[in-house]
Predict the structure.
Amino acid sequence: MAESILVRSTLRLILNNGIDPKTDDIITKVKSFNNVNPGATADQLYAVGEAFASLQTLPLYSMERNDNSELVQSEGA
């Protein structure tokens, strides 16, 4: 049987960079922060994301956490 091991996390801040005048869609800009501790909780990442967002010139539109996992064969299978 295989198992999934969390190996890397990334925090992404999606910033509002205005409105497209032709389509009325929101234009976004993304800031990514790599080497996030995979064991960090959602509350911890949200607090850090808000702190980083307060340092940006553009307003925060949304926040994402991207986790990468490695699939391995479990022992004894």
The mean pLDDT is 94.
